[in-house]
Design a protein that fits this description.
Length: 259
């Protein structure tokens, strides 16, 4: 009898959390996801050759479609301060993105996705699980980075980005690509910075993510992989939305602590 009670408890908690999450979805978030999927379907049906340079690579097409749909969903989960974004990201974003990057020859970005994001997702889930909001346990507490650390971070980005960009130009085939290796380098830096900030629950992770998205826009246009621009645009919209939500939350919590 005790064994059955334990099983029921194990099933009930995730079910209640999932129902609570569904109830928390706003009309904006629902419209956002529906419009993203509609845009993907229209683009693939009407402009298949423009969306993908290599339409005969079925594996690349499937991975790209999964990524386009799952990345905005992951963004929504992060904006809602849900720790379950890490599990969703691990299976539906990191694995598919790594395959896409290797297929497109973006090896440094593929290594970041594979060696950095996969373990980071697991570590972040554990860390976020320990930082639940006291009033709403479904939320994770987030905070704002002190100004002096923001300034130091910007200087570090410029130095490391320029150094990494110079190294990427030494790779055979990259020498004649102009500033693209530097764009890829800064993209990698912003992506890693976003991962560190999101692990530490800093609102500035949205700024790093926005910079990453802008860099990736240039990269995908340069490579003719236009299908990813759908998810890039969708994530830019949600990045602004998520930043506002996190900023308001962190300001409110800071005010409560100061009262």
């Amino acid at each position: 009898m005790y064994k059955y009670r334990v099983i029921i408890l194990l099933i009930n908690k995730p079910t209640k959390n999932f129902i609570s999450f569904l109830k928390s979805i706003t009309p904006f978030e629902l419209s956002y996801m529906v419009l993203t999927i509609i845009a993907l379907i229209i683009s693939i049906v009407l402009f298949p050759n423009i969306m993908l340079e290599d339409t005969e690579n079925a594996f690349l097409v499937v991975c790209s479609v999964i990524s386009v749909i799952s990345s905005p969903i992951c963004e929504i989960l992060i904006s809602k301060q849900s720790r379950y974004w890490t599990i969703f990201s691990l299976f539906f974003v990191e694995i598919t993105d790594t395959c896409i990057y290797f297929s497109l020859g973006l090896y440094s970005t593929a290594l970041v996705s594979c060696l950095f994001w996969i373990p980071m997702d697991l570590i972040t889930f554990v860390r976020w699980n320990k930082c639940k909001d006291e009033e709403k346990p479904i939320l994770t507490k987030v905070r704002k980075l002190p100004t002096k650390y923001s300034i130091l971070t910007m200087f570090g980005i410029v130095l490391v980005g320029c150094g990494l960009g110079s190294l990427l130009t030494l790779i055979p085939g990259n020498a004649g690509q102009g500033v693209l290796p530097y764009i890829i380098a800064f993209s990698n830096i912003f992506e890693i910075l976003n991962g560190i900030f999101i692990l530490l629950r800093y609102t500035e992770q949205w700024m790093a993510w926005m910079a990453y998205l802008l860099c990736q826009t240039i990269v995908y246009i340069s490579l003719g992989h236009y299908i990813m621009l759908i998810t890039i645009f969708a994530m830019i919209v949600n990045t602004v939305y998520g930043f506002i939500k996190w900023f308001i939350y962190s300001k409110r919590k800071s005010h409560q602590l100061n009262v």
